[in-house]
Amino acid sequence: MDVQSEKLELIKMLLETDDKAIIEAVKDILKSEKKEAWEKLTPEQQEKINIVIQKENRGDIVDF
């Protein structure tokens, strides 16, 4: 099964559950993954990303 199919299957499973503990566990895993990815960046890379985010928030960057 390809990644897109796996994602769709996971979405389907999440939509079918009412178990808040499962939903929170999935959220925690995804948040942890993002945090780990951020921490793997060098301080210079983090700074560049933060600058771009600030510019975008001010409207200095225009998407076409």
Task: Map the helices and strands.
Blueprint: H1 3-16, H2 20-40, H3 43-58
Mean pLDDT: 86
What letter string, H or E per element, gives the SSE order? HHH
Largest sheet: number of strands, sense, barrel closure: none
End-to-end distance, in Å?
34 Å
Q: Measured on Cα atoms, how large is the radius of gyration?
A: 17 Å
Q: Helical residue percent? A: over 70%
The DSSP helix count reads 3
- Secondary-structure content class: mainly alpha
**What sort of overall outline do the alpha carbons produce when their principal axes are compared?**
elongated
Tell me the β content. under 5%
Number of strands: 0
Unreliable stretches (pLDDT < 50, length at least 5) are none
Question: What features would you describe in this structure?
Answer:
This protein starts with a helix and ends in a 6-residue tail after the last helix. It has 3 helices and no strands. The mean pLDDT is 86. It is mainly alpha-helical.
In short:
The protein is mainly alpha-helical and 64 residues long.
